[in-house]
Amino acid sequence: MKMPAQHSPMLLVHGGAWAIPADAAQDHQNGVRKALEAGYEVLGRGGPALEAVVAAVTVMEDNPTFDAGRGSFLTSDGRVQLDALIMDGGRMKAGGVACVERLRNPIQAARLVLEESPHVYFVGDGAEAFAAAHGMELIENEELVLPRERERLKAAQARAAAGMADETFSGLQDDKEPETAVRAADDGPMARDEGLEEQEMSNGEQGIENHGRKTRSVEDPTGWSHDTVGAVALDAWGNLAAGTSTGGTLNKTPGRVGDSSLIGCGCYADNLSAAVSLTGWGEPIMKLVLGKWATDRVATGTAPEIAAREAISYLYNRLGGHGGIILLGPDGRFGFAHNTPAMAWGLATWAGMHTGLQEGNRE
Question: Minimal CB count within 10 Å: which of 10, 44, 188, 230?
């Protein structure tokens, strides 16, 4: 006998945590709102959390505003390589793909891996072949590439050639060195609690936090973009799901995989703890297995809004990392946090939909 639905469905999404410029702000909020509409339509008719996450993330992959799917950052050789993970917290099943170049929607391929394979993770040609064998269309990589991104790559490579590599969200000066290393010389040694002491804000809404940090100004804030997208959902039956999708970092070496598609790093879901999706610079997030770290705090009794804040504090204090997190517990409590200048977020419940970019910014 099937138990009656007893939970109020909820959907949270993010569209990346970074220095979102003013002329891109509305596109980001519009993008996360459309994702909410698609995902909550599933939940509103009694559909499963997993399906809602796929619907929401697919909308953002199809939106060139974000670094996922079409319009993603380019690798150093000028191609798009995509990663995605999805996880079902009720069945404890997961599916992931990485370094795919011929799939329009990697989150849908990840769903196929979850449902149709005894394996959890496929990469590159193998992931594409598996997806094609299960009905997904293979496209030319050129269809995912935008002229805007060719220009962005050209500028990034020129900066790198001039010794101006993007260090904004990379954490410690040399990410392969011990965590006791210091930031670049003009920043001075990294204070253990600097990321929270310099600026700490809350907008008064349950679970929505922003832990900012003073950042050095640059001419082109779009060069800092880390528009990874993600969603977490709770359905009427009490099941949690999470999904994260990304095009990775600008000018990355081909074959590089970040945190987004790694279980427990950029994405995780378990009905006994929480569902989480992260965004930001992946290397520090991976080394801390930050998604699982956050859900474990919820499992031991920490409220999601506090656990989200603690996770971002840990990311910064331990490894100098920057990013954002959305976290949803099985009881419907939730948390948002970021230590970047902004994070595109959206929340949908029975009471309505809200989107924002940072503290005090809500529509």
Answer: 188
What distance in Å separates the CA atoms of residue 49 and residue 332, rounded to the nearest whole number? 13
Active-site choice (58, 228, 244, 340): 228
Classify residue 2: in a domain, yes or no: no
Range of the structural domain that residue 254 is part of:
10-355
Q: In terms of C-beta density within 10 A (0-12 exposed, 13-18 middle, 19 or more buried), how is residue 78 classed?
A: middle
Q: Does residue 317 lie within any of the structural domains? A: yes
Q: Is residue 148, in this structure, part of any structural domain at all?
A: yes
DSSP state of 50: H
Q: How far apart are CA 28 and CA 317, in angstroms?
A: 28
3-state helix, strand, coil in the chain (%, to 5): 30, 25, 45
Number of domains, the chain? 1
pLDDT digits (tens, 9 = 90+) for 55-85: 999 999 999 999 999 999 999 999 999 999 9
Q: Does the annotation count 279 as an active-site position? A: no
The CATH number that applies at residue 78 is 3.60.20.30
Report the alpha-carbon distance of residue 309 to residue 306 in Å, rounded: 5
Q: What is the pLDDT of residues 125-149, one digit of tens each?
A: 999 999 999 999 999 999 999 999 9
- The verdict on residue 145 lying in a domain is yes
